Amino acid sequence: MIERDDLDMLAAEFVLGTLPVEDRQRVQRLRTTHPELDAQILQWESRLSALNDEIEPVDPAPGLFARIERSIDQLEQASSQHNEVVRLRQQVSRWRLSTAATSIAAMLLIAVMMLEPTPTESPYVAVFQHNDEQPAFLLTVDLARKQLNIQPVTARPAGNQSYQLWIKDDELGPTPRSVGVLNEHFEVDPAALTNYDAELLRRATFGISLEPRGGSPTGQPTGPALHGFLYPTGEGADTNRL
């Protein structure tokens, strides 16, 4: 029996397109005999498709396409990844020809992070959302290099307040520890997780809270936080949940 939380995350990964091909095929077969899983998938599709109507189109950040193209050029040097290069070039071309909805931008973010090969594993992704609301942020972490990237999905600039990223694990003590304050472009130091062990990052709880401008004055979250856990996006994905 699949737990409800596992069903929800499995459905989210299926809709975002982060499951390996074999796992995606298994989920496609499983949903035909598992009404609850099928319902969860339909709910995620509905949440993300609604972003097309609710969010105003925005121009890509300066230099984004250049970074994507540089990453693709690096992949072209490795013949074993030729098919991935072709697929990603097609995605970049489509994005340049049309206004991307936020849900597509979220999926493209995951693909871009996977462009940079690591020695051992694919990036890990956490989705930050409140209950059944649409996701506010995506956090991508390259555990091999201890690099992180935050992408807003439905989150908007907070005016005179700041978003702050936190990490919590029993090994770090009873209270959350600040990873960093997001700037006006929703960016945080990519190397902020350098001093954390990869195994700790895999199991840790991450949170994003809304704080006074410049960050929490107490060193702890001053209000409710959105929480997320890291899940693998490639061959390291946990297939036992099926």
Automatic annotation (TrEMBL):
Biological-process GO terms, alphabetical: regulation of translation
Pfam (any one): RskA_C
Superkingdom: Bacteria
One GO CC term, this protein: plasma membrane
Protein name: Anti-sigma K factor RskA C-terminal domain-containing protein
Region (Disordered): 211-242
GO molecular function, one term: sigma factor antagonist activity
Anti-sigma K factor RskA C-terminal domain segment(s): 101-224
